[in-house]
Recover the amino acids of this structure.
C-alpha cells in the first residue's frame, strides 16, 4: 500500500520535471499555427517565468487541474480523457476477458501433457504470436478482412466505433458497435492470449511436481479429476495475478491497435497528442496510464494475499 | 596458461557442445546469421539511388513483379531494397539499446544485491519504479522530450528496458553473496569494487548473456512500435518506420499487402530467432529457471 503510494508520488514529480526540461520555447510550441490573443500569451509567459519551485507547488496542489487546455484541441485535457475512457474500457475489457479464457484453456491443455502434440503446436503458435508487433497484425487483418485481399471479400468496417449516423443507444446501434469491435478485439485477443497461455502452462507444469498430486492419484482419483480439482485451481493463482500485473503491456497494445483501427479511445488520443506534439495532453495521458497501472498492481498484490494464505505472514 | 583461463575455456566448449544439440536454438542462430549478413552487405548490394525518392523509377503502390519482387512504395521505390536497408537500422538500434540496457541492468542488479541498508533499498526502489510504470507511455514521453532521432531512440529504449534484468541479476547476486569464497575474500580485506568485479560479475555473467538475447528480442519489438508511432528518425527506414509510412500513406485502404506484410514477417523472424537462442541458452546456463 505504502509502496504503491510512493511510486505514485514519483510519477507525479517525474511528470512535472521531465516536461520542464523540454528544449525550446514552450509558448512558441503552444501558439504555433494558431490565432492566439497576445495578452493571453503574455499571461502564459508570466506563469512560466515564475520560479520553478513556485510552479511545482501550484502543480502539486492539483495535478489534475481541470483548467489546463490541450494545445491542439483547445479543450480541457481531463475532459477529453473522460470522453475517451469508455471506448477503451469496452475494447480492452472484452479483449482481456476473451484472451484470459482462451489463453488459460490453452495453457491447461498444453501444460498437463508437456511435450505432447498439442503442447508443441500451441507453444510454437504462442511464441510466434508473442513475436508479432500487435499493430502489424491489426493492419494485416484490416487488409484481408476489411479491404479484401487474397480472394477474401471485405466484410468488416475499416475503422471507427460505429457507422456515421447510427444511434449507438438503440439495439441496432449496439450491433453496429459490435461489428466494429470484431477486428480490433481479435487482434488484441491473439496478442494477449499468447502471454497468458505461456504463463498458465509454466505454472501448471510447476504444480505437477507437487506431492499432493501424487497423493491424489494414489488414492485412486481419475486423471481428469486430479487436474480439475487439484492442479488447475492452484496453478490459476499466478496466472490471474499476472493478468492484473500485465496491464502495462496491455496499454501498449491499446495505443497502437486503437491507432490502426481509428478506435476513438485513449490510445488514439495518445497518438493524436503525440503527432502534435500536444504537451499538456501527453502529460495528462501519461499520468492517467501510470495511475491505472499502479492501481492494477496494487489489486494484484491484494488478490494474492486474499487467495494465497501462505503469503499472509 | 593459468588455471582459471583453462577452466573458462573448458566451460565454453561444454556450452558450445550442448548448444549445438539444441535444435530450436540452432534454428535461431541460422535465421540470425542470414539477417546479420543482409545488414552487413546492404551498403554494398544496394545502390544509393534505390533509396532516393527523386530517382525512383517504379509506379506508386505497384504489386510484386519481376523487377520489383515485393512491389513498390508510395513513391515508387523497391520495397525489397528498403527492407534490406531496414535490417541494418533495426538490428543496429536493437543491439545498441540492448547494450545500454544490459550494462544498466547488470550494474543496478549487482549493486542492489551486494550492498546492504538504505543504498540497496533505494536501488530496489528505482528498479521497481521502472518495472511498474507502463513502458510505452514512458517511452513516448521521453522520446517527445528528447526529439526524434536514431540515437535518442536507442537511449529511450535502453533506459526503459533494464529493470527486468536488474531484478534477475539481483536475485542471482544475493545467492552468490552467501558463498564461502566471498566470505574468504572479505576476510582477506577485499573492497566492495573488487568483490563485485572479480567474484560476483564472473558468476552472474552467463545469466547476463542468456538474458541479453531475450532482451534483444523485446527491444526490437519496442523499436518497431516506437518507430511506427513516428518517434524514430524519419530519414532512417527501419522496419517500424516502414510500417509507419505504409500506414500513413494509405497502403492499408489500397489493400497493398506487399507493403505491410514483409516488414512484419522480418520482425517476427528476428524476434523469434533471438527468443529461441535466448531460451536455449537459458536451458543450458540455468536449467532450474527454464523448466
Amino acid at each position: 500500500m505504502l509502496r504503491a503510494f510512493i511510486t505514485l508520488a514519483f510519477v507525479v514529480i517525474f511528470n512535472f520535471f521531465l516536461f520542464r526540461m523540454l528544449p525550446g520555447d514552450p509558448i512558441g510550441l503552444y501558439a504555433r499555427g494558431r490565432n492566439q490573443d497576445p495578452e493571453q500569451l503574455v499571461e502564459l509567459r508570466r506563469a512560466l517565468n515564475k520560479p520553478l519551485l513556485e510552479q511545482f507547488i501550484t502543480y502539486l496542489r492539483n495535478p489534475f487541474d481541470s483548467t489546463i487546455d490541450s494545445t491542439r484541441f483547445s479543450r480541457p485535457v481531463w475532459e477529453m480523457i473522460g470522453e475517451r475512457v469508455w471506448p477503451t474500457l469496452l475494447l480492452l475489457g472484452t479483449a482481456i476477458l476473451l484472451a484470459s479464457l482462451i489463453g488459460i484453456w490453452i495453457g491447461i491443455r498444453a501444460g498437463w501433457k508437456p511435450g505432447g502434440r498439442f503442447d508443441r503446436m500451441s507453444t510454437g503458435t504462442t511464441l510466434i504470436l508473442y513475436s508479432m508487433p500487435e499493430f502489424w497484425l491489426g493492419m494485416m487483418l484490416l487488409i484481408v478482412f476489411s479491404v479484401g485481399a487474397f480472394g477474401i471479400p471485405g466484410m468488416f468496417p475499416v475503422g471507427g466505433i460505429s457507422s456515421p449516423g447510427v444511434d449507438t443507444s438503440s439495439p441496432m446501434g449496439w450491433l453496429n458497435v459490435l461489428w466494429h469491435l470484431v477486428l480490433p478485439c481479435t487482434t488484441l485477443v491473439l496478442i494477449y492470449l499468447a502471454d497468458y497461455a505461456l504463463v498458465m502452462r509454466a505454472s501448471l507444469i510447476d504444480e505437477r511436481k507437487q506431492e499432493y498430486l501424487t497423493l491424489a492419484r494414489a488414492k485412486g482419483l481419475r486423471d481428469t479429476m486430479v487436474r480439475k480439482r487439484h492442479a488447475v485451481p492452484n496453478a490459476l493463482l499466478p496466472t490471474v495475478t499476472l493478468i492484473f500485473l500485465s496491464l502495462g503491456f496491455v496499454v501498449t497494445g491499446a495505443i497502437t491497435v486503437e491507432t490502426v483501427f481509428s478506435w476513438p479511445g485513449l490510445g488514439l488520443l495518445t497518438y493524436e497528442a503525440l503527432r502534435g506534439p500536444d504537451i499538456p495532453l501527453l502529460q495528462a495521458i501519461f499520468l492517467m496510464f501510470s495511475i491505472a497501472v499502479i492501481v492494477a498492481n496494487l489489486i494484484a498484490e491484494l488478490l494474492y494475499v486474499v487467495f494465497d494464505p501462505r503469503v499472509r505472514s | 596458461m593459468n588455471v582459471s583461463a583453462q577452466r573458462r575455456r573448458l566451460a565454453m566448449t561444454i556450452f558450445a557442445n550442448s548448444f549445438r544439440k539444441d535444435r530450436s536454438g540452432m534454428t535461431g542462430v541460422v535465421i540470425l546469421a542470414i539477417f546479420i549478413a543482409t545488414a552487413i552487405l546492404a551498403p554494398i548490394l544496394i545502390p544509393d539511388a534505390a533509396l532516393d525518392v527523386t530517382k525512383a523509377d517504379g509506379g506508386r503502390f505497384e504489386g510484386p513483379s519481376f523487377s520489383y519482387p515485393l512491389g513498390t512504395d508510395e513513391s515508387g521505390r523497391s520495397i525489397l531494397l528498403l527492407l534490406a536497408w531496414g535490417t541494418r537500422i533495426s538490428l543496429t538500434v536493437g543491439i545498441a539499446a540492448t547494450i545500454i540496457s544490459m550494462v544498466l541492468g547488470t550494474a543496478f542488479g549487482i549493486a542492489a544485491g551486494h550492498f546492504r541498508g538504505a543504498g540497496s533499498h533505494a536501488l530496489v526502489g528505482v528498479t521497481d519504479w521502472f518495472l511498474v510504470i507502463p513502458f510505452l507511455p514512458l517511452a513516448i514521453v521521453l522520446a517527445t522530450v528528447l526529439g526524434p532521432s536514431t540515437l535518442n531512440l536507442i537511449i529511450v529504449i535502453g533506459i526503459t528496458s533494464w529493470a527486468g534484468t536488474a531484478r534477475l541479476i539481483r536475485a542471482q547476486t544475493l545467492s552468490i553473496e552467501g558463498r564461502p569464497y566471498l566470505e574468504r575474500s572479505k576476510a582477506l580485506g577485499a573492497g566492495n569494487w573488487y568483490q563485485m568485479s572479480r567474484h560476483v560479475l564472473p558468476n552472474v555473467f552467463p545469466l547476463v548473456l542468456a538474458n541479453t538475447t531475450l532482451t534483444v528480442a523485446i527491444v526490437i519489438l519496442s523499436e518497431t512500435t516506437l518507430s511506427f508511432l513516428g518517434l524514430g528518425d524519419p530519414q532512417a527506414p527501419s522496419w517500424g518506420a516502414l510500417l509507419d509510412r505504409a500506414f500513413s500513406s494509405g497502403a492499408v485502404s489500397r489493400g497493398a499487402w506487399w507493403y505491410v506484410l514483409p516488414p512484419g514477417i522480418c520482425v517476427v523472424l528476428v524476434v523469434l530467432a533471438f527468443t529461441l537462442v535466448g531460451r536455449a541458452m537459458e536451458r543450458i546456463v540455468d536449467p532450474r529457471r527454464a523448466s
In short: Chain B has a mean pLDDT of 81. The two ends of chain B are 37 Å apart (CA to CA).
